[in-house]
Amino acid sequence: MSQENSLHNRAVWFDIPVADLDRADSFYAAVLACSVDRVSMPGMSFSVLEHDKGNGGCLVQKPDEVASDRGILVYFNAEGRIRDAVAKAREHGGEVVEDTHSIGPHGFRAIVRDSEGNRIALHSESDA
């Protein structure tokens, strides 16, 4: 995590519980158009979403912690490609809960269930 990140952002990391790490890796790589890197250690594996200098997070195989309809809603950056991201979500085992819609001066969002059943939001300043 960069110093700028730790000084200016309230949320600095997230873990997304998944039932099937391979399936979740494929879903998030396609929907977010980013790399997903597997990390293996004795007794555990997880996958880190590409984040360079931004806030980051990972996919952790914890099937008992997957929640589909409540709890914290994480917004993922789909800037300039929100409609493509929604299409990729459908193609990779996700379900559209709320299709792309305006959130006023804050841009556009879509809410989807990922390939594992977690509810996430996709966000873009433009409806593209």
Mean pLDDT: 91
Q: Estimate nothing, just give the exact number of structural domains.
A: 1
How far is it from the N-terminal to the C-terminal residue, by CA? 30 Å
Largest sheet: 4 strands, mixed
Query: How many strands?
Result: 8
Indicate the low-confidence ranges by residue numbers: none
Secondary structure category:
alpha/beta
What helical percentage do the residues reach? 10-25%
Q: Output the CATH homologous superfamily.
A: 2,3-Dihydroxybiphenyl 1,2-Dioxygenase, domain 1
Shape: globular
Please tell me how large the radius of gyration is: 14 Å
Counting H and I runs of at least 4 residues, what is the number of helices? Answer: 3
Describe this structure in words.
This protein has helices at residues 3-8, 21-32, 82-91, and strands at 13-18, 36-41, 44-49, 56-61, 75-77, 95-102, 108-113, 119-124. It has one domain (3-124): 2,3-Dihydroxybiphenyl 1,2-Dioxygenase, domain 1 (Roll). The radius of gyration is 14 Å and the shape is globular. Strand 2 and strand 3 (44-49) form a beta hairpin. The protein is of the alpha/beta class and 128 residues long. Helix 2 (21-32) packs antiparallel against helix 3 (82-91).
